[in-house]
């Protein structure tokens, strides 16, 4: 990321160009994803050097915006702070979510670390359910290859129903493909329909969905889920925009909460994770170790608790045997009984007896 003065000068240089961007009604593309997945590297690959860095209104959270031209069409690319889900916990996540709600993007690029698909895909499902025009970017494909992990991207694309692109952002690999996918969404003006993720809470979600009359930046189904999860910001929004039905919605939420033993947030997260596990079983090669190098194989083995813990005990036992038994007993015995008793002591005794004639002094050195 850029720092201090460099940012300031870029900010200044963009002040003149910013109005032009708005006049042309540039399509917006938002980059989202957890921290450290390569969003900013991809942002830099998509944009030129002219970027603006500004604090999101009312916060100290920085967002970065830049321009890109794809197939003759102008886009504004927005880099966001890391977020793990649509239900914000940190201020960073709140800002990123607000950008999604407010900017009506023509494409939302969900950047993930492809090595950790199981951890990353629940958010993809959430974004898709929210009716956002998602492009899934599997970044870190260099490391995926090094680890011998195989991901069937075609099948993943089919299951999710959104474009899936594998990239190595740091090497600029497949950025052209990503640009083509962004252009594709822009050209067709694809009407993204949110895909329903079946849920045990379907009845409540559909009930709330039917009562929402206003338009929100996210699909009504996603808004309903967030209401059930107790998202304060969304509750305030719905209370203002759907005044007439808000009381009924509150009743459904209260009834649903009464009917479940765990928190709704936890239940919905569990459902999504289960779905993701099924998807990963289909698209990620189970024989992850097959092509991996020795170091990675050992890494994976030691990280697995079933193998890792006994391996740890074995290593400690081997160290005890080496230092405690071999070192303290065998080596010391050898030094004492063989080296010193047999050779060194008789040799030094003889030496001192030969060069020191006085027995009193000899006793100080000889034993
Ligand atoms: N090996 C490898 N490293 C990568 C790749 N993409 C990004 N990185 C590295 O991953 C680190 C994180 O990249 P960033 O672009 O800063 O990640 P980010 O998603 O913007 O992170 P936050 O801004 O903290 O949310 C950097 O050190 C990059 O050089 C990739 O495809 N392969
Ligand atoms: Mg970043």
Describe the structure.
The chain is an alpha/beta fold and 367 residues long. The chain has three domains: 4-188, Rossmann fold, CATH 3.40.50; 202-287, Orthogonal Bundle (Helix Hairpins); 304-365, no CATH class. Helices cover 58% and strands 12% of the residues. It contains 16 helices and seven strands. Strands 2-3-4-1-5-6-7 form a seven-stranded mixed β-sheet, with helices on both faces. Helix 5 (117-129) crosses helix 13, helix 9 (202-211) crosses helix 10 (220-228) and helix 9 (202-211) runs antiparallel to helix 12. The protein is elongated. Magnesium ion (MG) is lined by residues 1, 39-40, 79.
**Biggest sheet overview:** 7 strands, mixed
CATH class bucket of the largest domain: Alpha Beta
* DSSP helical segment count: 16
Bound molecules: guanosine-5'-triphosphate, magnesium ion
Termini gap: 72 Å
Question: Overall mean pLDDT score?
Answer: 84
The name of the CATH superfamily of the largest domain reads: P-loop containing nucleotide triphosphate hydrolases
CATH topology of the largest domain: Rossmann fold
CATH-derived architecture of the largest domain: 3-Layer(aba) Sandwich
Instruction: Bin the helical content.
Output: 55-70%
Shape: elongated
Uncertain segments are 1-23
Strand order of the largest sheet: 2-3-4-1-5-6-7
Given helix and strand content, the structural type is: alpha/beta
Structurally, how many domains make up the residues? 3
Order of helices and strands: HHEHEEEHEHEHHEHHHHHHHHH
Strand content: 5-15%
Q: Evaluate the radius of gyration.
A: 32 Å
DSSP summary, beta strand count: 7
